[in-house]
Amino acid sequence: MPAATTPPAAGRRTLAVLLLIPVVAALALSIFAWPAARLAPRDLPVGVAGPAAAADAVARGLERHEGAFEIHRYADAGAARAAIEDRDVYGAVLVTPGGTELLTASAASPVVAGLLREAVTAQAPAGAPVRVTDVVAAPAGDPRGAVLGASLLPLALVGAATGAATVLLGLRGAGAVATLVGAAALAGLVGAALADSWLGALTGDWWAEAGVLGLTVLAIGAAFAGLATLLGKPGFGLGAALTILFGNAFSGMSSAPELLPTGVGALGQWLPPGAGGSALRSVSAFEGAAAGRPLLVLSLWAVAGLAATAFGARRRPAEAVPAAAQAPVPVG
What is d(CA 231, CA 181) in angstroms, rounded to the nearest whole number? Predict the structure, then answer.
């Protein structure tokens, strides 16, 4: 029989856990708190339209905020509106004979819409009003984008739980793939029913929203299961870090990727939660504009994860059965 764990060994394990937990807690808090504490515009795409001289003056005013805005010039108000609806820019400043008008899209980010309002109003001449038009308004059921921002963590948890259960239950091959796909499809339907039909936080095509929600859960679940299949126990930790910790903290869903520290927002858009959030905004409020790239990212994660889950187990050697666990041989 194997020797029982000695008290000194148990004490060392307890000490290791006690030392590890504060480190993990500090790391998790830092990952979530650091980006939130450093919110500021970084190359935020903004349009400017109007007579050349007046538009140049507006652009120079915005460029005084070094590195904050990425200026796009448009010929007229129609072109600027189209750019907002296509998600090329977050807003646009129109210089007209009647004064300055700011076009925003609170559906893209209520935080950015408020930031643009403050920046443009601050540089306007004293006493000159700035008209604000919300070209693509946030849904009445979620005017601050709180529901959309809060939805990512539950999706990540559901996806991670599905991936973990698939591996822990010993599902392999077609059975594992069917489980991951089926669970994601059901999660997408339930998510759309809650966020769209009940809360009114999503207002786009219902089936498109359900599809994006389901694909997000599938990408997360498949990635989690694939990593756990290939790497074993370390894969569970890596999957949780990518899909729950970094994926949510770096998604920019509560603000915008361009408001996060340099590089963080871009990285977040290559992880399933960030890509899923961007795709969901596009199909919900912008009729699918700019949804191509995030949908591609989600698809890549899903396909790679499903392939690793289905075929990765064949490449790992079977775990040896401990001698003590083998059936005893009868004597005599």
Answer: 22
